[in-house]
């Protein structure tokens, strides 16, 4: 047994996350809010992207199909035009903090130009954005890398962070799982349950609700198609999931000999716990907006884990 003898220990808005806290790691706090298995096209959640563009493509609803558990976005060259497909939740559902997950198979590698992926944006009137999976036209040609990044606007100033990640097995051969953890304190992007990167500076963390986009674009920049022919390509997705955090951010908990086993876990305003013991062989996570304070003797038995997360005085709802 490992016993921590503590006069007082306070967790506040710190800048390092030791590991990801996914719904499987923290099932007590997460609730499955939205799930689409793409058996059919869910018009209550998604729109086909209208006839606009972010690149060289023009969108058509005819190039979007959802059946048998697969969303398929097709891009084809018709004359000199690239006719493509995409879907978005604009004016259907905006999402806030939580855990997002989707499986994706990129367009078959070998041809330069495909661009797009799984991303989130505030829509008109602001610029917060998270690009979870955004390979550009050169990334898709290689098939082994992609870009990811964030844009966050606070006090009229927009800050951004983006990187390229490479060395993957060819991402166009099989489905891979791409996930986002978004809280007021940090952003983490995961691939197949492994943390790819994290941002822990709140000034770089988006704070506004955003719509979800799944798009097949054509890169108009330095990685645009470099051949006159462009074979029809498909971008495929499966199993979109969004989990929200349960919250009770107006109330704090002060207790001696806290009962972890029977607690209804939510993001509280604060915790102040004294002389408490984590149950044997358990994984306990506490979340609060303001602080988590441990007083007296706090016991974590060998084989159990304890994680404390604070959310920078912001309720993640």
Q: What can you see in these coordinates?
A:
The structure is a single chain. By secondary structure, the protein is mainly β. It is built from 1 helix and 23 strands. Strands 2, 4, 5, 6, 7, 9, 14, 15, 16 and 18 form a 10-stranded mixed β-sheet that branches. Strand 15 and strand 16 form a beta hairpin. The two termini are 36 Å apart. 36% of the residues are buried. Residues 1-7 have low confidence and may be disordered.
Itemize the secondary structure elements and their pairings:
Blueprint: E1 2-11, E2 30-36, E3 47-48, E4 57-59, E5 64-67, E6 70-78, E7 81-84, E8 86-88, E9 98-105, E10 114-121, E11 129-134, H1 137-142, E12 146-154, E13 157-165, E14 176-182, E15 187-191, E16 194-199, E17 211-218, E18 233-245, E19 247-248, E20 253-256, E21 267-277, E22 283-300, E23 305-310
Parallel strand pairs: 4-7, 19-21, 20-21, 21-22, 22-23
Antiparallel strand pairs: 1-22, 2-18, 3-8, 5-6, 6-7, 6-18, 8-17, 9-14, 9-18, 10-11, 10-17, 11-12, 12-13, 14-15, 15-16
């Amino acid at each position: 047994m490992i016993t921590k003898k503590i006069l007082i220990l306070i967790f506040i808005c710190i800048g390092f996350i030791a590991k990801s806290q996914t719904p499987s790691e923290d099932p007590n706090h997460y609730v499955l809010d939205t799930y689409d298995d793409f058996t059919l096209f869910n018009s209550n959640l998604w729109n086909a992207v209208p006839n606009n563009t972010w690149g060289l493509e023009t969108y058509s609803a005819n190039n979007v199909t959802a059946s048998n558990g697969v969303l398929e976005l097709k891009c084809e060259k018709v004359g000199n035009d690239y006719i493509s497909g995409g879907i978005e939740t604009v004016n259907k559902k905006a999402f806030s903090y939580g855990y997002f997950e989707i499986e994706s198979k990129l367009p078959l590698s070998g041809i330069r130009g495909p661009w797009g992926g799984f991303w989130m944006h505030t829509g008109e009137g602001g610029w917060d954005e998270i690009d979870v999976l955004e390979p550009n036209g050169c990334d898709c040609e290689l098939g082994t890398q992609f870009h990811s990044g964030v844009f966050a606007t606070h006090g009229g100033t927009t800050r951004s962070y983006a990187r390229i990640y490479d060395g993957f097995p060819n991402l166009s051969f099989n489905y891979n799982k791409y996930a986002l953890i978004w809280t007021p304190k940090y952003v983490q992007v995961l691939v197949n349950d492994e943390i790819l990167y994290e941002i822990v500076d709140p000034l770089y963390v988006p704070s506004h609700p955003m719509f979800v986009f799944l798009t097949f674009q054509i890169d108009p920049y330095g990685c645009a198609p470099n051949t006159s022919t462009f074979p029809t390509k498909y971008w495929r997705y499966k199993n979109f999931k969004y989990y929200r955090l349960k919250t009770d951010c107006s109330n704090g908990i002060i207790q001696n000999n806290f009962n972890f086993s029977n607690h209804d876990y939510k993001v509280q305003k604060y915790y102040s716990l004294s002389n408490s013991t984590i149950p044997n062989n358990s994984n306990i996570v506490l979340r609060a907006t303001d602080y988590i304070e441990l007083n007296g003797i706090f016991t974590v038995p060998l084989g159990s884990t304890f994680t404390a997360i604070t959310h920078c005085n912001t309720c993640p709802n």
